[in-house]
Amino acid sequence: MKAHGLHTAIVTPFTQQGELDRTAFLRLLDMQIDAGVDGVVVCGSTGESATTTTAEKILLWTWAVEHCAGKISVTAGTGTNDTRTTIELTQAAKTAGCDAALIVCPYYNKPSQHGIIAHYTAVANAVDIPIILYNIQGRTGVNMTAETQVAIARACRNVIATKEASQNLEQMCQIIAQAPEHFSVLAGDDSLALPVIACGATGVIAVMSNYQPRTFGALIRAALSGDLATARRLQAQLMPWYVVNFIEPNPIPVKYIMHARGWINDVIRLPLEPATAATRSTLDAMLAQLPHDA
Predict the structure, then answer these.
(1) pLDDT digits (tens, 9 = 90+) for 190-245
(2) Is domain 5-228 given the CATH code 3.20.20.70 in the classification?
(3) What's the pLDDT band for 294 if we cut at 50, 70, 90?
(4) For every residue of 90-144, which 3-state class applies, written as one string?
(5) How far apart are CA 75 and CA 99, in angstroms?
(6) Which of 242, 260, 172 is closest to 206 using CA atoms?
(7) pLDDT over 80 at 1, yes or no
(8) What is the pLDDT of residues 11-27, one digit of tens each?
(9) Taking the CB of residue 142, how many other CB atoms lie within 10 A of it?
(10) CB–CB of 115/78 below 8 Å?
(11) Residues in Cβ contact with 93 at an 8 Å cutoff, skipping those fewer than 6 apart
(12) pLDDT tens, 119-160?
């Protein structure tokens, strides 16, 4: 797998009873395939990985692999705060046929940088699958430094990229400058995809492309090809959406947007709740101006 281009961190649709909605999930995959994205991430933060069971994760990975069938890559979100569990989930993702595993920095435990290196090294040595690091201090409480990420990449040939959601452009540039040849940086914040690609990143794992895969895909392709005029124009067009995607915790706004489009039920698992009336009003006003096939 090449860590390149646009990969959508796809939402997990549920039935009104709160169970996995296979029909809606396959429909969302078709939307991504038809829009020309490079891959999907299944059971990431946007996919409510924290509240899906192991059995549900395996079902979602299996459905995605079977449905995408080589058309686009499927990356499984397998990271937990326990190394043994992470190894087990990553092995399950490999068995399901996933192309790669996205592994978040262990949360809650607050490991040292040495502990983080040991965690990823243990997983990479245990499961022969391409691994993408995921650095998001806002959710984990710990920042993986540039030095730590580069050390992991040098020690583990199957660690191919990092999803960098630190919002620290200087740190991202340090990783890009120091990384071994097989390792690349993917933007972890939609709004920073353009500037990070301009600095040498190879793509993005995105929320935006759940409902605007064509427009955001055009921005990413323009940025990667050096067409900065087009990329800047699309960046300006999408800036208000970058903001509203996070007016409540992700994926509350994006799931409401997709519900309003008629694609999924407005169902999210506790402790998250559906969007408030104020958020729905804001999003409805914006959606009135958005083409249905964006």
Answers:
(1) 999 999 999 999 999 999 999 999 999 999 999 999 999 999 999 999 999 999 99
(2) yes
(3) confident
(4) HHHHHHHCCCEEEEECCCCCCCCHHHHHHHHHHHHHHCCCCEEEEECHHHHCCCC
(5) 6
(6) 242
(7) no
(8) 999 999 999 999 999 99
(9) 21
(10) no
(11) 61, 76, 78, 101, 129
(12) 999 999 999 999 999 999 999 999 999 999 999 999 999 999
What's the token pair of residue 54?
């192991």
**Can you give the three-state secondary structure of 15-46, one letter per residue?**
CCCCCECHHHHHHHHHHHHHHCCCEEEECCCC
Domain ranges of the chain: 5-228
Long-range interactions of 229-236: CB distance < 8 A, separation 24+:
231/194, 232/194, 235/194
Residue listed under structure tokens 């009104």: 16
Given the structure tokens 């009336």, which residue do they identify? Answer: 277
Mean pLDDT of the chain: 97
Query: The tokens of 205 are what?
Result: 């794992």
- Count of residues in the chain: 294
Catalytic residue annotation: 134, 163
Distances from the Cα of 82 to the Cαs of 87, 91, 216, in angstroms?
A: 9, 14, 34
